[in-house]
Amino acid sequence: MQVIGLCRFSYPALGGFQVEHETMEERLAYLYSDARMAERFRLFETVALPSLRQQTDQDFDLILVTGDSLPQQHRDRLHSLTADMPQVRIVTEPPRRHRPIMKDLLNQARRDPNQPCLQFRFDDDDAVAGEFVARLRETAADCAPLLAKTAAAAIDFNSGYIAEFSADGIAAAEPAVYPYFTAALAMYAAGGSRMTIMNFAHHRIHHHIPTVTVPDVPMWVRSHNRFNDSRQLRADQIAVTPLTAKQEREFETIFGIRSAHVRQVFGS
Q1: Which of 88, 71, 65, 78 is nearest to 16 (CA)?
Q2: How far apart are CA 130 and CA 220, in angstroms?
Q3: Can you give 241-263 as a three-state secondary structure string?
Q4: 72-82 and 34-43 are packed helices; what angle lies between their axes, rounded to 10 degrees?
Q5: 186-238, pLDDT tens digit by residue?
Q6: Cβ-count burial of 112 within 10 angstroms (0-12 exposed, 13-18 middle, 19+ buried)?
Q7: Looking at the DSSP assignment, which residues form a beta bridge with residue 228?
Q8: Coil, strand or helix: which one is 202?
Q9: pTM for the full model?
């Protein structure tokens, strides 16, 4: 079954942001500011991409969506960082309504629309466990009788870590359960259905389609940083503490995130 991920990298959508701007010029100035882009690339390089490179099942596709207005130096850097990842396809689009363009891109990425597929959203500052794609396929197989009866269903790996990243390394909270977080939330789409994971607000997906919850092991890392869109208006404060040496080894083993790499990139 084809597995398709969708990652927006500073795409200037019309809508889809909790931080609103009066004009597209203001949005572009915000998205492409030096401070914001520096942080996005640091997190993308040290958190997001290592977790994808660590997948035990490398048979997945990732659509990396950015704007056609992304400055050339940032576009070049995106291509450089993902050059060794054949799964990644960088797509540049002009500003369009958020959900319609993302739904279109997901449907266009289906190699055979008459066959079922699995889809997930992937934020550029988060990580998933190295077994995420494999466990996603495994869970879908385990739930085959349910999936055969529905056009769409969600698979929610809801256990993970909230973490912060800096020149000091990694600080994280204790593992927690957050239902229907974007990170490690996936969706089954039946053959012939044009429904996508972008048809639904992630925190309300269970209002619309059947869902399966898998809480057994931490499957995601959600980064808290200065430019989390979802935290700008009502930022929640979660206590984090520096990882011990043992926890650093666990983060590297599970998610591919290396503390030494984080310190190097954030300290430069």
Answers
A1: 65
A2: 10
A3: EECCHHHHHHHHHHHCCCHHHHH
A4: 0
A5: 999 999 999 999 999 999 999 999 999 999 999 999 999 765 554 444 556 78
A6: exposed
A7: none
A8: helix
A9: 0.93
